[in-house]
Each structure stands twice: as C-alpha cells, then as structure tokens.
Amino acid sequence: IAAVTQKTRCVGSAMALPPQVCAQLCRRPCYCPWVPPRCPRGSPLVLDGCGCCKICARRLGEPCDFLHVCDRSQGLVCDYSAASAGTGATCNFEDVEEGCEVNGRVYRDGEVFQPSCKLQCRCLDGGFTCVPLCQEDIRLPTPDCPYPRRVEVPGKCCPEWICEARDRHLLQDAGAASPLLPYPCQEWGTEWSACSATCGVGFSTRISNQNRYCRLETQRRLCMARPCPALPAASPAVS
C-alpha cells in the first residue's frame, strides 16, 4: 500500500542535474509507503533526492547516489571522486577535516560531546577520549554504616551511597569470629576505569577490597581499546 503525492522535484543532490534527467530519475506522481522506514541510530529521516518520500539518511562511508542522499546535518555529501574506480559513490565530509563517529553520530575534530550523562568526550584525530563526570569517591565501612553500597537513584545520573541495615546479632557474631576486623568483610569495588591508551596496550584501574586483609587498594590490569595503526616503513639508512 502506498501513499500518492504530487510533489516531485530534484533536491539534495551535490550535482546540478538538467530537468530531463530529473524527470527520468523521479517518478510522477510519487508513491511512498504509508509507514516511514525505521532508521538505525544516528540516521535521521530525510526526503530523497526527488523530494518525494522520506528515507534514512546515509551515514559516513555508506553508499549513496542521487536518490539516496547523505546526512547533511552531519556535514556529509555524496562523494563521487572514487566512482571512476568502480567502487561507487560514498558519503564523506564536505571538506577534508577529520572527524570521529560515536553511536552512529559524526563529530568534528576538536568537538566536545557527551554520549551519556556520565561521560564527556572529545573528538581528536579520528578517535576520541573520554573522562567520567561521576566521582568515584570511596566510603569506608563504619560502625553506623558497616555495609555501604552505591546504587542508581531514579532521576539522577550518578549513583549514590546508601547504608544497608543488617542484623546486629549477625554482625556481632561475625566480629567475634574474626577479631582482626571490627566488622565482617563484604567484598566491594569500583568499576574498571577506561583504558589509559586510546590505541595499543594500556591499563585500567579500580579500587577494591578483594584481598586477604579486606583493605581498599588500587588494582590495575592491562587493556587495549583498539590496535594502533601501522607506522610507515622506515627508509634505509644512509651510510
């Protein structure tokens, strides 16, 4: 089932096409589906090159043509420079400025953005670096709060500390069985941090008490976000 509309025109093309070419590419009248397509995340609904039906805008690196237009809100145009090589046209930046793509959205080089309320990131040289916006503060167990725990609070972005109520008799029995600790040791730790290196081997850290003495300590482990690009081969040394 299709909806019929009389609006037919040539729009969204990076090339100026003569009217006879537009008439060949665009049908009169337009036949569009009643239900618009469901687009992937980061791809908005836009009018096709004929200005008839709503389609999903093509994203960076995706194939495009006169009918299937690129996402102009992200500064993308249909690049025909590689079409002569038989690879077809693809969506590319209108200029040569390098950017990065996160969750289907393209950011310009140097642009600061927040993919979530817990992170603030910056696009840099085709990649991106992020810093947490929620404090990873530490709350030690105390007699009035022997079981501190961080929980997600509805309506708030960052988790908050709460004190769980436990049976005091169980607390006293556990303390008598372990005279070195005034309270039973409940395993606790923060989430692992982001990798210290944007490419190659780095390390991430967390704070945890999962050790034989139940003491808070900083723990590290190796990580790798992605491999680093290969360096160009060095020229032979000149004697």
Report a brief summary of the structure:
The chain is mainly β. It has helices at residues 19-25, 168-177, and strands at residues 2-5, 30-33, 45-47, 54-56, 76-79, 90-93, 99-102, 105-108, 112-116, 119-124, 127-132, 148-151, 160-163, 201-208, 217-224. The protein folds into four domains: 23-95, Omega-AgatoxinV, CATH 4.10.40; 100-132, Complement Module, domain 1 (Ribbon), CATH 2.10.70; 139-165, no CATH class; 188-227, Thrombospondin type-1 (TSP1) repeat (TSP-1 type 1 repeat, Single Sheet).
CATH fold topology of the largest domain:
Omega-AgatoxinV
Rounded to an integer in angstroms, the radius of gyration calculated over CA atoms is: 28 Å
How many strands appear in the DSSP assignment?
A: 15
Described by strand count, sense and barrel closure, the largest sheet is: 3 strands, antiparallel
CATH class of the largest domain: Few Secondary Structures
The shape, in one word, is: elongated
Strand content: 25-35%
What's the N-to-C terminus distance?
76 Å
Count of helical stretches: 2
Summed up, the domain count is 4
Quaternary form: single chain
Secondary-structure content class: mainly beta
Strands side by side in the biggest sheet: 9-10-11
Contiguous low-pLDDT stretches (5 residues minimum) are: 1-9, 11-16, 167-179
Average pLDDT metric: 75
CATH arch. level architecture of the largest domain: Irregular
Level of helix content? under 10%
Helix and strand element order: EHEEEEEEEEEEEEHEE
